[in-house]
Write a structure and sequence with these properties.
single chain; about 425 residues; binds zinc ion; globular; alpha/beta
């Protein structure tokens, strides 16, 4: 039996524990990029309590007992967000059919280093936009959230919703080979089948929906100019997802597929490679984000292990996409930062910032695309995207001024996610 004295000791310990668990950290930032106002602030104090930003300002009092992190020689930015990753697909294998030589568990366990590399290179959140083996991304997201695996905060699609034989399907097999469910989970061939897949994905815990609206580059027997869903099917995806509070992103290379997707009401068009003037005007009118992966051509073309048909598709598109990116930026279309990470090694995503500046953005615009714009695209502006009171304490720091030299983001010296430090050099 517990006597009275033991009970009192227990209560005192309980109180002490709860005091100790209120973890307070203070960052002294030499400079801070305010992505909302589009300015660089000097000498900022950032107070963090239990993983969230409590206050930001000049000369704030440091709470007693707080751990102080001195970044007075650095520039602090919000944690970066890549809106187009494939952390689990192992695309680096270059041949999707190799997935058939592995179990689902093997594929997802092999993705653990991808998550760590992504976080340590400065991306504290990712919008992961599809897996060949359905729901492996849900498993990785949850393992990260539970603290089993080190990685960015993941928002996942669960599968590609794609036509049979389409760019999100596992293609290249003999017609009499039947795939297991997880490798054909997202296949849909009518508006109602599309709705059914959205319902299933919601039930399985995804954060957003990925539809494949045109052919692809890195898929066998695929032509990037083909239309892979009708306008009715795309509208069905957006409408059904809306009912569950989910947003839709559409993979689209060809102008017609891009325009169909925008008209259907998707939140973002992925790649948007051959977007034409009509598409640019439509994106502006609908407030659609373009998520243009303009760096990864550097990796694809230098990778001699890529299948020959993939390289031919890719060569035709790389420069066209970069010039269209320039046009879209000039026209003032909303732009988010997406790299198709997995096509390049996971630590190469950060190299896209300099390319975005080379093709028409200011350094501030490039940084905003990966912070405030990305958070807006995710519908998470209340939690992510800037260093403001009430948001998650997700931050990175670099030596020097990234608004003068955006390539400094290729050498992030400090990474914090949820108030916890994951990298400090
Ligand atoms: Zn992709």
């Amino acid at each position: 039996m517990v006597d009275f004295v033991e009970l009192r000791i227990g209560l005192v310990l309980l109180v002490l524990c709860s005091v100790a668990s209120a973890q307070v950290t203070v960052i002294k930032a030499g400079h801070l990029v305010d992505v909302d106002a589009g300015v660089l602030l000097a000498d900022q104090t950032i107070v963090i309590r239990d993983g969230k930003i409590e206050a930001v300002g000049k000369g704030l009092a440091i709470p007693t007992g707080a751990e102080v992190i001195d970044l007075s020689a650095m520039t602090v930015l919000p944690g970066l967000i890549d809106c187009h990753t494939h952390l689990v697909d192992g695309i680096r294998e270059t041949e999707p059919l190799k997935q058939l030589q592995k179990s689902a568990a093997q594929v997802v366990l092999e993705s653990i280093p991808n998550a760590r590399v992504t976080l340590e290179s400065g991306f504290t959140s990712v919008r992961d936009v599809g897996v060949y083996r359905a729901l492996n991304d849900v498993a990785l997201r949850d393992a990260i959230n539970n603290g089993y695996v080190v990685g960015p905060r993941m928002f996942v699609a669960g599968a590609y919703i794609t036509i049979t034989g389409g760019a999100g399907a596992m293609t290249g097999l003999a017609p009499d080979i039947a795939l297991p469910l997880d490798l054909r989970y997202g296949e849909a061939n009518s508006p109602w089948e599309v709705r059914q897949k959205v319902r299933l994905l919601y039930h399985h815990g995804v954060d957003h929906i990925k539809v494949v609206a045109s052919g692809a580059v890195l898929t066998h027997d695929s032509n990037f100019n083909t239309l892979e869903f009708t306008p009715e099917e795309l509208s069905a995806a957006v409408d059904e997802a809306k009912g569950f509070g989910l947003r839709v992103e559409a993979h689209a290379h060809s102008p017609e597929a891009i325009n169909n997707a925008i008209r259907a009401g998707v939140a973002s068009v992925e790649h948007a490679t051959l977007i034409d003037d009509e598409g640019i005007a439509l994106a502006k009118e609908h407030g659609t984000y373009l998520d243009m992966d303009i760096y990864n051509d550097e990796c694809t073309q230098s990778d001699k292990t890529q299948p020959k048909d993939f390289l031919e598709h890719d060569a035709a598109l790389g420069e066209a996409q970069r010039q269209n990116f320039r046009k879209a930026v000039k026209a003032g279309v909303k732009m988010s930062f997406g790299t198709d990470a997995g096509v390049c090694p996971y630590d190469a995503a950060r190299k896209q910032f300099a390319f975005m500046v080379r093709y028409g953005m200011t350094p501030m615009q490039a940084i905003q695309s990966a912070t405030r714009n990305a958070a807006d695209l995710l519908g998470k502006s209340d939690m992510l995207g800037s260093v403001k009171a009430g948001k998650f304490a997700d931050m990175v720091a670099v030596s020097g001024n990234p608004l003068e030299d955006v390539s400094l983001l290729e050498h992030v010296k400090f990474v914090m996610k949820d108030g916890k430090v994951y990298k400090r050099e």
